[in-house]
């Protein structure tokens, strides 16, 4: 991990606009002209560098953002998409076809879970869901048909940590592609440096950070990204989840402050997690020594960006969790909303929201309890003040007694 700093890699890029602007010009075109028909043909065939054909394939603005995100993750290149699911689904469909098998963490974002559980079986792709923290269980689930090992660095919503180096060794032994969704831990963890083959983000969350758009990215080798964009057989090109150029220009501007934001999210989340744990609440945060994967996570992170901004509290019952969230919103401590990475704290009960696609019995098995609240801790300037106000809400509802 020496000499690799994802934020410095972004900072080191230099772009100029068409008229010397300090921001790159936005390409506001869906199609591009050619001076010669031969060049158009060569571009179509993928034999022409630096020429643009049609914006579903690529556009200058998207390529700028691709480049910045590839620099951040330390991969050869990247491909941005219209949403996180618009990155995940083509990536998996490019890697797997009828008869193939995926081994996936069982604690993943509900939409990804639903795609693997309900949608891909229609195409003859099967998935086995496993406890990703148990490497022996992961390896035992691999069959001769397995093509992909899939996980989230820090899982949604249980904040389980995937040992990416350990999983990468298994993937290499069995000739599998290790795909890691790093949405919860940008900058903090660099999965490709730990052996992941493909790194995915929902840009909707921390990377854009302003809850004003959805977006996604697949960071990988040039060979894989070329295959995704192939005009004849590429899942991204053919399914069409293309990010709009105006949006990619705006995500790019927000990306530039990600390092500052991540440090503050991590600082605030660590502060609250330590306080609430001390208060006797069931608190899960990878930065706490009580987190089952704390030691391994410490070795995985780029320490200056901390342990991230996601934390869970188990309030006991859904009714109490709902009361608390409504009260915290009324006191303007944050918003009762799904998603994450906003400047305000966001909270939701995943069992009835972002993970509701997961059947109840499976939620129980994986430890997703009714009273669990998932917090995306915001950029509060005075986190001690926020803590005192949150604590007062808990006292009012008898969640905390003294
Ligand atoms: N991956 C993770 C970890 C998520 O939390 C989400 C959305 O909540 C997604 C992927 C999907 O991203 P999007 O909503 O941008 O399609």
UniProtKB/TrEMBL annotation:
GO cellular component annotations of the record: cytoplasm
InterPro entries recorded: Cys/Met-Metab_PyrdxlP-dep_enz (IPR000277), PyrdxlP-dep_Trfase (IPR015424), PyrdxlP-dep_Trfase_major (IPR015421), PyrdxlP-dep_Trfase_small (IPR015422)
UniProt-recorded Gene Ontology molecular function terms: carbon-sulfur lyase activity; pyridoxal phosphate binding
Positions where N6-(pyridoxal phosphate)lysine occurs in the chain: 205
Pfam families listed in its UniProt record: Cys_Met_Meta_PP
Cofactor (UniProt): pyridoxal 5'-phosphate
Swiss-Prot/TrEMBL GO biological process terms: transsulfuration
Keywords per UniProt: Lyase, Pyridoxal phosphate
Family: Belongs to the trans-sulfuration enzymes family.
Name the record gives this protein: Methionine-gamma-lyase
Organism, scientific name: Flavobacterium omnivorum
Organism placement in taxonomy: Bacteria, Pseudomonadati, Bacteroidota, Flavobacteriia, Flavobacteriales
């Amino acid at each position: 991990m020496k000499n690799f700093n994802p934020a410095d890699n972004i900072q080191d890029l230099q772009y100029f606009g068409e008229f010397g602007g300090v921001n790159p010009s936005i390409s506001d075109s869906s199609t591009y002209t050619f001076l010669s028909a031969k060049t158009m043909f060569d571009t179509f065939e993928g034999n022409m560098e630096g020429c643009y054909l049609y914006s579903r394939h690529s556009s200058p603005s998207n390529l700028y953002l691709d480049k910045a995100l590839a620099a951040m993750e330390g991969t050869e290149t990247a491909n941005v998409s219209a949403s996180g699911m618009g990155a995940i689904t083509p990536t998996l469909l490019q890697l797997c076809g009828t008869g193939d098998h995926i081994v996936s963490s069982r604690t993943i974002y509900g939409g990804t879970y639903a795609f693997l559980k309900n949608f891909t079986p229609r195409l003859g792709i099967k998935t086995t869901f496993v406890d990703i923290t148990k490497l022996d269980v992961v390896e035992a689930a691999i069959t001769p048909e397995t093509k992909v090992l899939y996980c989230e660095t820090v899982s949604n919503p249980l904040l389980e940590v995937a040992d990416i180096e350990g999983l990468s060794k298994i993937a290499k032994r069995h000739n599998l592609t290790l795909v890691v969704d790093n949405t919860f831990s940008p900058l903090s963890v660099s999965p490709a440096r730990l052996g992941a083959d493909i790194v995915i983000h929902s840009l909707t969350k921390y990377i854009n950070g302003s809850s004003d758009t959805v977006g996604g990215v697949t960071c990988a080798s040039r060979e894989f990204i070329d295959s995704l964009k192939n005009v004849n057989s590429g899942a991204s090109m053919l399914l069409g989840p293309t990010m709009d150029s105006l949006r990619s220009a705006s995500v790019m501007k927000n990306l530039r402050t990600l390092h500052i934001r991540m440090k503050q999210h991590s600082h605030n989340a660590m502060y609250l997690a330590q306080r609430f744990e001390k208060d006797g609440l069931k608190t899960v945060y990878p930065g706490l020594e009580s987190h089952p994967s704390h030691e391994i996570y410490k070795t995985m992170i780029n320490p200056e960006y901390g342990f991230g901004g996601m934390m869970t509290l188990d309030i006991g019952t859904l009714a109490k969790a709902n009361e608390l969230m409504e009260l915290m919103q009324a006191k303007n401590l944050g918003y009762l909303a799904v998603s994450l990475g906003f400047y305000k704290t966001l909270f939701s009960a995943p069992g009835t929201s972002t993970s509701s696609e997961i059947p109840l019995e499976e939620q129980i098995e994986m430890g997703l309890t009714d009273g669990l609240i998932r917090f995306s801790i915001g950029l509060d300037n005075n986190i001690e003040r926020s803590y005192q106000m949150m604590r007062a809400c808990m006292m009012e509802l008898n969640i905390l007694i003294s």
